[in-house]
Amino acid sequence: MSDEYYKLFVVIHKLAVCHNLIEGVWNHVSFEIPNTKNHILFTPGHTHWDLVNENNITTLDNEGSIIAGENKILPVAWKIHKPIHSINPDYRCLIHIHTPYITSTSIYGEFETRLTQHSSIFHNDVSFFNEYIENIDDTEMYELMAECIKGKRVLFLKNHGAIISGFTLGEAYMATYLLEKACMYQCLTLNQNSTYQLIPESIVIKMKDNFFNNLCEKHFNGFLEYYKNKLT
Length: 232
Ligand SMILES: [Zn+2]
What we know:
This protein is α+β, with helices and mostly antiparallel strands. The protein has a single domain, classed as L-fuculose-1-phosphate Aldolase. The chain contains seven helices and eight strands, in the order H-E-E-E-E-H-E-H-H-E-H-E-E-H-H. Helix 5 (about 140-150) links the parallel strand 6 (about 125-130) and strand 7 (about 155).
């Protein structure tokens, strides 16, 4: 089973390249492998996401020591991800990115979840960490970030980007894909309109439930089919 996790971990990096969710060799994904002693897969450091493969992805133990993988991770990846895995253990996958619309929203400082079907899936599930990360060795700050995302799916990092969580690799990927779209529609709306209408909250809650209980897995399987047919 753990081989399947490795394969899927690689695939979401390739899909992210295809969907333009990457920033060269920056950014990182982590996934805590079920039924292990908190072993976590990480994106290898300084490696373009299109070149991520089953040999170079890094597996770390609970203390951050390398168990497997040809490449080391970026040290900041462990500092950001590990406290969040500890505080939100059900969210096994974390994706940290700096895509244009997510980063613009982190600068703006507000995210309206009642604008579109894309944003609805994040209703009551978003936090903002409103302190700019200046000193990457400040361990206390990473603990505060983890506290800030506790119980939530998304954490926007001030003027920086976001961390998106999922119970599974597929769920985290779909949430990341849709968060960038949702932020794009918010940015375009704010740019074009001084006033706008919101979707009623009762409908937003239904759309969110339907997404995670029904659509998410189907959408992700559709992406996997595309990957098998076009990208391999
Ligand atoms: Zn970052």
